[in-house]
Amino acid sequence: MERLKSNTDFSRVYQKGKYSADRLVVVHYLPNQLEFSRFGFSVSKKIGNSVTRNLVKRRLRSIVQKLAPQIRRGYDIVVSARVGAQKADFLSLEKSVRHAIFRAFLFLKEDRGHERGN
Q1: 3-state DSSP call for residue 116?
Q2: The pTM is what?
Q3: CATH number, residue 34
Q4: What's the CA gap between 15 and 69, in Å, rounded?
Q5: Distances in whole angstroms, Cα of residue 23 to Cα of each of 37, 79, 94, 111
Q6: For 91-116, what is each residue's pLDDT tens digit?
Q7: 114 in the Ramachandran plot: left (φ > 0), alpha (ψ -120 to 50) or beta?
Q8: Residue 7 pLDDT > 90
Q9: Is 60 part of any domain?
Q10: Is position 84 within any domain?
Q11: Which of 19, 53, 112, 114 could form a disulfide with 28, with the two C-beta atoms 3.0–4.6 Å apart?
């Protein structure tokens, strides 16, 4: 999974891209003219102290890493936690991420964000 790291990349996605929101997360996305998608994660200080923010960020990273093969290539995607994400369990957070990505039409057509066999 390729990562967005620079503030310039994040700013470009926020300013020029579109977004899709769910109860616990907001997904910002922008085509990147590359053969792969890059992912960034944003957790505000409103979420809590550094321990809490890092926990939320690790969970988001894990969820997106699991979903990455099902997501279209060629996008820069920033997943931002909303207030309330720190209190949500892993499955609720995963459902929220899936829903926001689905609403952004970022899943490959055949996958739709559902795991095989479920």
Answers
A1: coil
A2: 0.91
A3: 3.30.230.10
A4: 26
A5: 24, 13, 11, 22
A6: 999 999 999 999 999 999 765 556 54
A7: beta
A8: yes
A9: yes
A10: yes
A11: 19
| Tens-digit pLDDT profile for residues 21-77 | 999 999 999 999 999 999 999 999 999 999 999 999 999 999 999 999 999 999 999
Beta bridge partners of 40: 78
C-alpha span between 12 and 112 (Å, rounded): 27
**What is the chain's length?**
118
Q: Considering the domain boundaries, does residue 43 fall inside one?
A: yes
Residue 85 CB-half CA count within 13 A: 32
96, part of any domain: yes
Please report the pLDDT score of residue 117 as a whole number: 41
Q: What is the pLDDT of residue 116?
A: 46
8 A C-beta contact, residue 25 and residue 79 = yes
For residue 25, give its domain range: 2-103
* 84 C-beta neighbours (distance < 10 Å), count: 14
Query: How many separate domains does the chain show?
Result: 1
Hunting for tokens 């490959």 — which residue is that?
108
